[in-house]
Design a protein that fits this description.
Largest sheet: 7 strands, mixed
Bound molecules: NADPH dihydro-nicotinamide-adenine-dinucleotide phosphate
CATH architecture of the largest domain: 3-Layer(bba) Sandwich
Structural class: alpha/beta
Strand content: 25-35%
Shape: globular
CATH topology of the largest domain: FAD/NAD(P)-binding domain
Helix content: 25-40%
Number of domains: 3
Length: 447
């Protein structure tokens, strides 16, 4: 903490995971902090992202589990009530912004509601009031991309999907990323006729493509229409609803989701005025200490131009790193651990560390083990035994990566993270006793 004439030691522009997870422990160390937020406290993830998405997905996962047990101890399938599911999701997230604000205030952090703009290297202006700080952290996140085609205003974004109270009969999804695949899964399992438009031949580009193809085949088997190498050209309203015109014909729809990615929030916050360097599509440029081109200004979360995934856990990691940096706990560069990622489809795909493609390209460095989950007794008990696990080991036998497609892939990959991050030796792994029988015990058994 420095003695200075500034009102705050640190001012955060934005209140999402890139800010609040780090701000709370920093305030507890005695730093004077302010957080500026134009929208809901907590940003994307709690209000219009992960928390809402996983809430909508819970009935999907349960329905799949019930369907799988038909004739095996369960009789009678179940049906998702769209309206009630969306209401449940809204109930889950409703209290989050107030809860986060209360936590922030309880450690003495000032919350400034309004739209902030940098006016110099130590000042942010909100509604005509100037707030000064020794250091500023830009954590403004990202917003949805809007496809540049005529009629795009007739389409909707992911936030609107999470608020959609009336189930569409036909939904067209443009894009094949996380949001496209997760929301297509929710809608299709709820009984909506879903069409996915991929502008190339791949979905979920960063995941292992043979597993992605399995996922696409599974969606197709559930009635989802997937059109590859298609270019949406315009959207029009007609008597029957909407139509997406493409170079491969017209797709009749009742609701259209534009899920073509997210753009960092770099516009209109004074970056040019104070000389913070950024790229419009990639985000704010920082050095290996998350410091921008202006010494007193740092950045964190989805607004960063970074190589690791723009995910909630990486935003939290960055916020906590800045806390350690500002409080003198570290002066080291940020050193990300292996970052796990999952797409919460049905089945899910989850991964961590060295990928199968990387391992196959470097046989002198890695050994690969593939397990067909059809042979796993516990998955058979769950009747969820379709899937594969690929584990990657270095030449000393240390686990360095895992990718799985299965209904439980998120749990399975989550269970082995410490082995990778703590570099647990093959011998030491035997010292970990798991609960039995669980997905965790079976995953460890397959290593
Ligand atoms: P993604 O970047 O994951 O995917 C964007 C998709 O849109 C890609 O399939 C891309 O295809 C396609 N696309 C891009 N431009 C066009 C175009 N002009 N026409 C048609 N299709 C196009 O974005 P999302 O919106 O799905 O997710 C945004 C971010 O949110 C993710 O990167 C992730 O960080 C985060 N997120 C994470 C989740 C999780 O962890 N489970 C869940 C939801 C979001 P192509 O690749 O072929 O260019």
């Amino acid at each position: 903490m420095t003695e200075s004439n500034f009102q705050y030691d640190v001012l955060y522009l934005g209140s999402g995971h890139g800010a609040f997870n780090g701000a709370i422990p920093l305030a507890q160390k005695g730093f004077k902090l302010g957080i500026i937020e134009a929208g809901k406290i907590g940003g994307t993830c709690p209000n219009r992202g992960c928390n809402a998405k996983i809430s909508l997905d819970i009935p999907v996962k349960i329905k799949d589990a019930v369907d799988a047990m038909q004739g095996r101890g369960l009789e009678g399938t179940t049906k998702i009530n769209w309206k009630a599911n969306v209401q449940h999701e809204k109930d889950v997230i409703a209290s989050l912004p107030n809860a986060i604000e209360t936590n922030l205030k309880s450690v003495g952090i000032d919350i400034i509601h309004g739209y902030g703009k940098l006016t110099d290297a130590h000042t942010i202006e909100v509604d005509g009031h100037k707030y000064t700080a020794d250091k500023i952290v830009i954590a403004t996140g990202a917003h949805y991309n809007k496809l540049d085609i005529p009629g795009i205003d007739l389409a909707h974004d992911g936030t609107e999907f999470l608020e959609l109270e009336d189930q569409p009969k036909r939904m067209t999804v443009i894009g094949g990323g996380y949001i496209a695949m997760e929301f297509a899964t929710v809608a299709a399992t709820s009984g909506t006729e879903v069409t996915i438009l991929l502008h190339h031949d791949k979905a979920l580009r960063r995941f292992y493509q043979p597993f992605v193809e399995e996922l696409l085949n599974d969606l197709t088997a559930k009635g989802v229409k997937i059109i590859k190498n298609v270019t949406p050209q315009s959207i029009e309203k007609n008597a029957d609803g909407y139509v997406v015109k493409t170079d491969q014909g017209e797709i009749a729809s009742d609701w259209i989701l534009d899920a073509t990615g997210r753009i960092p929030n770099v516009d209109g916050i004074g970056l040019d005025k104070v000389g913070v360097e950024y790229d419009n599509r990639k985000g704010i440029k920082v050095n290996d200490h998350l410091q921008t081109s202006v010494d007193s200004i740092y950045a964190s979360g989805d607004v960063l131009d970074k190589k690791v995934g723009k995910l909630t856990p990486t935003a939290i990691f960055e916020g906590l790193y800045l806390t350690k940096l500002f409080s003198g706990v570290t002066s080291d560069a940020i050193d990300y651990p292996a970052v796990p990622s999952a797409v919460f489809t049905s089945p899910r795909i989850a991964e961590i560390g060295v990928t199968p493609d990387e391992a196959k390209a470097n046989p002198d460095k890695y050994d690969i083990k593939e397990v067909n989950l059809a042979d796993d007794w516990f998955r058979f008990a769950l009747r969820q035994n379709e899937g594969h696990t690929i584990t990657i080991f270095d030449k000393k036998g240390y686990l360095v990566g895992m990718t799985e497609i299965s209904s439980e892939a998120d749990t399975a990959v989550g269970s082995i993270l410490p082995f990778i991050e703590l570099k647990v030796s093959p011998e030491k792994m035997d010292d970990f006793i798991t609960l039995f029988p669980t997905i965790e015990s079976e995953t460890k058994h397959h290593l």
